[in-house]
Inverse folding.
């Protein structure tokens, strides 16, 4: 009785280890929609001597002096100016994200 219990326990342990090591688990992805990411990635670069504020999706973000801000948002998201900039006023549209702008850098003046 004890030997059969030990045999069952050893078989269960080895099958668990074998199933974890099988590469077949990677063939079926449980979340296929996660691979079709339609978000746009844009990097805002602040080359000025002072900070710049932007508003994205109703939230304020600060780009420090000589700093960068990586934005990953769906296409159609609008980035607004939220602080003084020489060529833009507060509330102006800085950028309207589109798929063509993916992986680009935008310099804040």
């Amino acid at each position: 009785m004890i030997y059969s219990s030990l045999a069952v326990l050893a078989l269960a342990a080895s099958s668990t280890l074998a199933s974890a090591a099988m590469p077949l688990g990677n063939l079926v992805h449980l979340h296929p929609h996660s691979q079709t990411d339609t978000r746009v990635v844009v990097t805002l670069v602040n080359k000025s001597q002072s900070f710049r504020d932007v508003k994205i999706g109703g939230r304020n973000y600060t780009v420090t002096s000589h700093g960068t801000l990586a934005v990953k948002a769906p296409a159609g998201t609008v980035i607004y100016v939220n602080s003084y900039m020489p060529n833009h006023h507060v509330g102006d549209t800085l950028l309207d994200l589109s798929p063509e702008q993916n992986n680009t850098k935008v310099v804040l003046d």
In short: DSSP finds one helix and seven strands in the chain. The chain has a mean pLDDT of 84. The first strand starts at residue 39 and ends at 46. Residues 39 and 87 are 28 Å apart (CA to CA).
